[in-house]
Amino acid sequence: MASLVIIRINQDMSELVIFHKQLGDTVLLEPVLRKLAEASGEQVELLCPRQFAPVIELMPHTRLAAGRGRWFPDRLWAYDWGGKTTRAAAITFCREKHLLIPPSRDWVKWSHRRVFSSIQVQLYNDRYIAKYFWDHTESALTDSVYGQPRLELPSLAWRPKNWVEEPFLLLNAVSAWKRKCYDAQKWGRVLHGVRELGYSKVRMTGGTEDWQRAHCAEIVAAAAEHKVEVTDISGGTSLREFLFMVSRASAVLCIDGAASHLARAFQVPCVTLFGPSYREIWHHQDSLNLALAAGDYCEETKPSPAHIPADLVVDAMRRVKQAALAGITKNAASLN
């Protein structure tokens, strides 16, 4: 992937962004970070969980906040309204401090009003969250055009030990919330179906908590009942290794979470299963990125992904594979 070319417009304007949320949310912040960097002509300083450093390394326009850029920026942008972000903004030496917040549950507190010089209260209006951030961030580049989240490819140095270079399907079946998980027996049927599509090698990643490891073990057993072998490395990869695997997968199959956002950023075909989360905000549908939501198959308010029929997951995988092959064919034709 080509590196970002930064257009120098105002070299004197330094930008600090503060954001303390999950890994996937941080990936969705990439377009607005790129927008701010293009306008200022400098890398944006990002104050976020330090463990996300490998992801920030794949954003050439952004670096982890440190030194003068952390403490004395010209402008500060906060895209979450939690106490950690508000406290960090309070001790930053900067007059211009912006907060973006949705109008829900009386989230605008006295502490926000005391710390931030500007508070934008804006509805999501069913917008993809990356676009929501971008829309409500003013920039000197008034003619800038929104682009989907993107990351540079990790280097080979990030590959896991004993890495075998071969086509594979990456299955990421867990997130931080158990209620987002799909039924293990249905995963077995899905993996049987996608094998018929040519995805014979399956590698599964996941978390380190006991319930996450147990759920992945159930999926391995369910797949075995259908004579599908799954290489389970859940809980056994570093963040760098996980990023490398997502970027090199033939396709990604996952529940709502970081793997879905990373697949899009690396332009890897992906099918995502949604349960209680709001699909319209957390997913942008296109031919290479399909999402199935449990709410389409039941009337529950916050349904489990288990309501999604396994055969429809297989069909979605078939469609993203066809779209990927069509894109490859088109690109090959354009070179001739």
Brief descriptors of the model:
Rossmann fold, disordered C terminus, disordered N terminus, 12 strands, 13 helices, 37% helix, six-stranded parallel beta sheet, 2 domains, single chain, alpha/beta, globular, 336 residues
Give an overview of the whole structure.
By secondary structure, this protein is α/β, with parallel strands linked by helices. The protein has 13 helices and 12 strands. β11, α12 and β12 form a beta-alpha-beta unit. α2 packs parallel to α7, α8 crosses α9 and α8 runs parallel beside α13.
Put the structure in a nutshell:
The protein has 336 residues and is an alpha/beta fold.
Give the biggest beta sheet.
6 strands, parallel
**What's the CATH class of the largest domain, please?**
Alpha Beta
So what's the overall shape? globular
CATH homologous superfamily of the largest domain - what is it?
Answer: Glycogen Phosphorylase B
Task: Give the topology.
Blueprint: E1 15-18, H1 23-28, H2 30-40, E2 44-47, H3 53-57, E3 62-64, H4 67-71, E4 75-78, H5 83-90, E5 96-101, H6 110-115, E6 118-121, H7 129-135, E7 169-172, H8 184-195, E8 202-205, H9 210-225, E9 230-232, H10 239-248, E10 251-255, H11 258-265, E11 270-274, H12 279-282, E12 289-293, H13 310-335
Helix pairs in contact: 2-7, 8-9, 8-13
